[in-house]
Automatic annotation (TrEMBL):
EC numbers for this chain: 1.1.1.37
Pfam family for this entry, one: Ldh_1_N
The name this protein goes by in its record: Malate dehydrogenase
Organism classification: Eukaryota, Metazoa, Spiralia, Lophotrochozoa, Mollusca
Residues of the Lactate/malate dehydrogenase N-terminal domain: 6-152
Gene (name only): LOC101848818
Keyword Cytoplasm: no
Family membership: Belongs to the LDH/MDH superfamily. MDH type 2 family.
Length: 332
């Protein structure tokens, strides 16, 4: 059997982690034959709750879990980690935008970046879930400069999954019949869910999503708005932000990173821009990517029309402003 992978989950006593840990532990992400050491980080006042989570994980009696460590010490949690789910951060409440969390959350990612710099494996693969996810991921990477920038990402997979589910419902097909929807930009209400290059299989025939849906007005308006506002809609209904679906998306993201994407399909991830599609270098921007041997490659050469260009630039502009606000918060 392979050596155990060391996997850290921050915010381990919170609601996303409660679903995430179960899926990771039973092999949904790193494979059914991959043993795991799970490192669970939360803050000191949450240690009793976290111990309850540890008891439950033990009680699941999952053979892949070789070691469980619950801690409030980043020096323990990030030591030699291979994969990091960075969930620990304050969630927003009804009426807030995700960027309103910047002040409260960005310093967490500065401190954890500094800890990763000292302790994590240089090959560690990191997904930031805590909001505002793109900007937090940028800050995390900035404070862990010896870890390659391409090892940091942020999660826009929940937006991708939401978009896929909306199109599948519109077409009355199962979700796996819809692929290659792109989420461009920020995990915020300026994100651009783009179906121009997406495919759908309807009655045995694969066509583009615009051809299948035959309703440009829906695709340009209601669809985009629904995806952009889905997080807020869940908060309004549940009085808590998405957790089960967020955990599922984090698993999808990390699984694709470790196992690879398949069959010419791409997925969306926030990654550090290399200037592709005219997006300023250094921004943590969501692009369509393919993954092979754990290497992420931004899909190149997609045609971008005027409608898309405007939306892609608007979300990039918001990210630039967020990053500059975050950097100002990080000055000691
Ligand atoms: N990128 C995405 O698509 C999504 C992101 N989110 C974000 O994920 C984050 C977590 O959400 P929930 O689990 O619902 O929140 P939660 O409040 O249930 O759990 C957050 C946990 O993080 C812990 N925490 C706070 N500071 C910490 C630190 N310095 N180190 C370690 N742990 C720390 C808290 O004590 C708490 O246990 C929020 O920022 C939320 O907005 C939520 C859904 C989707
Ligand atoms: O909307 C929120 O605050 C939580 C989140 O990021 C999402 O559900 O996409």
């Amino acid at each position: 059997m392979a050596e155990p992978l060391r996997v850290v989950v921050t915010g381990a006593a919170g609601q996303i982690a409660y679903s995430l840990l179960f899926s990771v532990a039973k092999g949904d992400v790193f494979g059914k034959d991959q043993p795991l050491e799970l490192l669970l980080l939360d803050i000191t006042p949450m240690m009793e709750v976290l111990n309850g989570v540890v008891m439950e994980l033990m009680d699941c009696a999952i053979p892949l879990v070789k070691n469980l460590v619950a801690t409030d010490d980043p020096n323990v949690a990030f030591k030699d980690v291979d994969a990091a789910f960075m969930v620990g951060a304050m969630p927003r409440k009804e009426g807030m935008e995700r960027k309103d969390l910047l002040k409260a959350n960005v310093k967490i990612f500065k401190a954890q970046g500094q800890a990763m710099e000292k302790l994590a494996k240089k090959s560690v693969k990191v997904v930031v879930v805590g909001n505002p996810a793109n900007t937090n991921a940028c800050i995390l990477s900035k404070y862990a400069p010896s870890i390659p920038k391409e090892n940091f990402s942020c999660m826009t997979r929940l937006d991708q999954n939401r978009a896929q589910a909306q199109i599948a419902a519109k077409l009355n097909v199962s979700t796996e019949k819809v692929s290659n929807i792109i989420i461009w930009g920020n995990h915020s209400s300026t994100q651009f869910p783009d179906v121009a290059h997406a495919k759908a299989e309807v009655q045995g025939k694969v066509v583009t999503v615009p051809e299948a849906v035959q309703d440009d007005n829906f695709l340009k308006n209601e669809f985009i708005k629904t995806v952009q506002q889905r997080g807020a809609a869940v908060i309004k209904a549940r009085k808590l932000s998405s957790a089960m679906s967020a955990a599922k998306a984090a698993c999808d993201h990390m699984r694709d990173w470790f196992i690879g994407t398949k069959g010419g399909n791409w997925v969306s991830m926030g990654v550090i821009s290399d200037g592709s599609y005219g997006i300023k270098e250094g921004l943590m921007y969501s692009f369509p990517v393919t993954i092979e041997n754990k290497k992420i490659t931004i899909v190149q050469g997609l045609s971008i029309n005027e409608f898309a260009r405007e939306k892609m630039d608007a979300t990039a502009k918001e990210l630039e402003q967020e990053l500059s606000d975050a950097l100002a918060e990080c000055v000691d």
